[in-house]
Recover the amino acids of this structure.
């Protein structure tokens, strides 16, 4: 007999391992089609899975009673404090109001010339090589430089900063807390010096994010020095790995589907829509977690205080009830903008307009210079679970 928990079939699917590329999507689809709600028992606390588009959307709207006390259903105990993620209710709204001004569409548009220029420089540096590991050499370097520019820090620090952040991510994923702490200490020292410098020499807070954080008041209270450093670290953690991963999946698709690539080369005005369709088809943050604060009947699912809920972002984006032929890449899909790769509700991705800009600029500038490329023959493509990412993508092209 099938096991159940509060009426939900129990799933044992482990979403944390390494796997052949795209295998996680197959596992997610299979779970979604098994039943509307499941209970997954692969973590100590277990979690109730919301998997269909309408349920996941509705789940993001339960923010008054489902909080980010758990941010990831797969890692309910992750200790790293993050801001604004860890806040809920009014304190969250107030901090988002301060940060939003730097991530709003108009502010991001002002970054476009700089985003283009940096992207062109990086592509030109490697174009004559005829090959690169796209993920390790390009897809992480570009968002790192953009992140420094966003914070008003020198892009020339990019190489050094990348070394620390790579070391930090690598150690976190390898479960090596000692090395992670050491790498984090270098990063925090760098942020600490930048914030201290802005305290001494404030710039225009309308233009400079760190100066704005230094002068900001929430209910007449300043943000503490540690809170400002936490915000900087959060932006790094939230913005670099995600953009690198998105680029990895997108370039794999384009290398393997020459007709889709040629369509973008022939008509670059399709690129903004293609970016949305890629985000729908290849969501990397494939779930968000929440912790239930009071008992509730959610569309027939009985949840109790302390339960962990899984909001299945990728399952919603690939739900055939919402998106026709969900496994197909279709730039002209009429509801392409309704994907939820950036989540929903008040915690919806702060950096989504920046991410969109970065992806658009890379697709435009790369294909202008390197319109044809392929994956190096013999490469075995794999992905990491928890939050999808490809360790490597070796590309080659004619020079
Ligand atoms: C393709 C790239 C990206 C994807 C797919 C992505 C996805 C997401 C998702 C799904 C969430 C919601 C998590 C939840 O509800 O618990 C989120 C939140 C967030 N993202 Fe992104 N993100 C991307 C890029 C970025 C960038 C570039 C930045 C900033 C530099 C950023 C900063 C944040 C922050 C600060 C939050 C927390 C917002 C809050 O709790 O109020 N993200 N992101």
């Amino acid at each position: 007999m099938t096991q159940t928990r509060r009426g939900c079939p129990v799933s044992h699917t482990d979403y944390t391992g390494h796997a052949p590329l795209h295998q996680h999507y197959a596992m997610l689809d299979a779970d979604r089609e098994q039943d509307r709600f499941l209970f997954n028992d692969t973590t100590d606390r277990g979690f109730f899975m919301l998997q269909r588009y309408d349920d996941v959307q509705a789940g993001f709207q339960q923010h008054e009673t489902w909080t980010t006390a758990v941010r990831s259903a797969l890692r309910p105990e992750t200790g790293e404090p993050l801001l604004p993620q860890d806040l809920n209710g009014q304190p969250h709204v107030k901090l988002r109001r301060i940060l939003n001004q730097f991530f709003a569409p108009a502010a991001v548009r002002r970054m476009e010339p700089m985003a283009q220029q940096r992207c062109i420089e990086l592509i030109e540096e490697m174009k004559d090589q005829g090959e690169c590991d796209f993920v390790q050499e390009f897809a992480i370097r570009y968002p790192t430089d953009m992140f420094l520019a966003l914070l008003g820090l020198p892009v020339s620090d990019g190489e050094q900063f990348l070394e620390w952040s790579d070391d930090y991510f690598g150690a976190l994923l390898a479960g090596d807390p000692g090395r992670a702490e050491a790498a984090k200490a270098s990063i925090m020292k760098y942020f600490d010096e930048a914030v201290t410098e802005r305290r001494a020499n404030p710039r225009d807070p309308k233009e400079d994010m760190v100066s704005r954080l230094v002068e900001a008041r929430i209910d007449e209270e300043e943000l503490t020095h540690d809170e400002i450093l936490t915000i900087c670290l959060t932006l790094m953690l939230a913005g670099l790995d995600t953009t690198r991963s998105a680029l990895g999946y997108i370039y794999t698709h384009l290398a393997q589907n020459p007709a889709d690539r040629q369509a973008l080369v022939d008509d670059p005005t399709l690129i903004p829509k293609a970016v949305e369709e890629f985000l729908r088809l290849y969501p990397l943050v494939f779930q968000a977690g929440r912790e239930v604060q009071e008992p509730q009947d959610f569309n027939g699912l009985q949840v109790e205080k302390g339960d962990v809920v899984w909001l299945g972002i990728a399952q919603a984006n690939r739900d055939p009830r919402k998106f026709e032929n969900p496994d197909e890449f279709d730039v002209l899909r009429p509801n392409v903008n309704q994907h939820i790769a950036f989540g929903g509700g008040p915690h919806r991705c702060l950096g989504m307009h920046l991410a969109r800009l970065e992806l658009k600029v890379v697709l435009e500038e790369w294909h202008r210079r390197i319109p044809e490329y392929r994956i190096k023959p013999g490469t075995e493509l794999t992905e990491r679970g928890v939050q999808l990412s490809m360790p490597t993508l070796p590309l080659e092209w004619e020079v």
